[in-house]
Amino acid sequence: MENVTVSVILPVHNGAATIGRAIESALVQKVPLEVIIVDDGSTDDLGGALAKYANLPQFRCLHNEKNLGVAASRNRGVEAARGDYIAFLDADDWWEPGKLAAQLQVMRRKNVVLSCTGRELMHADGSSTGRSIPVQERITYRALLYHNCINCSSVLIRADVAREFPMEHDETHEDYIMWLRILKKYGEAAGLPRPYLKYRMAANSKSGSKLHSAGMTYRVYRYMGYGPLSSLFFFASYALHGVWKYAGAGRLSRKA
Q1: Which of 113, 109, 124, 199 minimizes the C-alpha distance to 160?
Q2: Contacts 24+ apart (CB under 8 A), 216-225
Q3: Given the DSSP bridges, would you call strands 156-158 and 85-88 parallel, antiparallel or unpaired?
């Protein structure tokens, strides 16, 4: 394809049951785009779920020879992308129409390299929990230290910046590290409060154990160069924000 504005990077491991909805939500966006699936060693019927899209000119599928993890899979998609911007989307999430166009408009107007949107929390079966989480319209590095308000499936980022700061440390919150590094250099991100992202809550996920997730978050601050005391301070704020964000959403765990 020529004149691709946005490359949608969609990593998947055994997501045949949900990936169709994610792909469809990308294809209805009114911007020139390509959808890059990165199959991270799936063993389910992913091929069957993707067959209907195989001949679309804006569709590509990359296959990892072995399971590499979500960070490496997203990075592989970014390297293969032809668009000026990168949008990340998980295989069990989906978007409202108009999401990418709204983000492009805001990013160009504010001259920022990254934007994100609010999200509506969905049950595992795709029904709404009735709870949405907005974002501030201006997100600074300092504010992001206190809590990660940027959800990966809502992000639109300039492609050259995504390649400058690839995702690392898959054993922790690799996306949070990426956002922090970007804002530390580029200053701020733009937030669209509207819940353009439909974010499916999962009972079993990378950060399903609260204790395990706490350790992952603490390590983010250590990777960013903060000492033990500062890291504990930022983590305490992060934890308090987490309690508020997911109050009322039921006993569901948060995906990475």
Answers
A1: 113
A2: 216/171, 216/172, 216/173, 216/256, 217/172, 217/173, 217/176, 219/169, 219/171, 219/172, 220/172, 220/173, 220/176, 220/177, 220/180, 221/145, 223/169, 223/172, 223/177, 224/177, 224/180, 224/181
A3: antiparallel
- Would you place residue 130 in the very low, low, confident or very high pLDDT band (cuts 50, 70, 90)? very high
Please state, in angstroms and rounded to a whole number, the distance separating the CA atoms of residues 49 and 97.
Answer: 22
Tokens 């709204």 appear where?
102
27-63 pLDDT, tens digit per residue, is 999 999 999 999 999 999 999 999 999 999 999 999 9
- Give the span between the Cα atoms of 173 and 162, in whole angstroms: 16
pLDDT value, residue 248: 47
What's the pTM value of the predicted model, to 2 decimals? 0.87
CA proximity to 67, closest of 38, 90, 30:
38
Phi-psi region of 176 (alpha: psi -120 to 50; beta: other; left: phi over 0): alpha
What's the distance, Cα to Cα, between the start and end of the chain in Å? 32
Higher confidence at residue 177 or residue 232? 177
8 SS3 class:
strand
List the structure tokens of 167.
């995702």
For residue 227, what pLDDT is reported? 81
Query: DSSP 3-state assignment of 53?
Result: helix
Q: Residue 6: is its pLDDT beyond 60?
A: yes
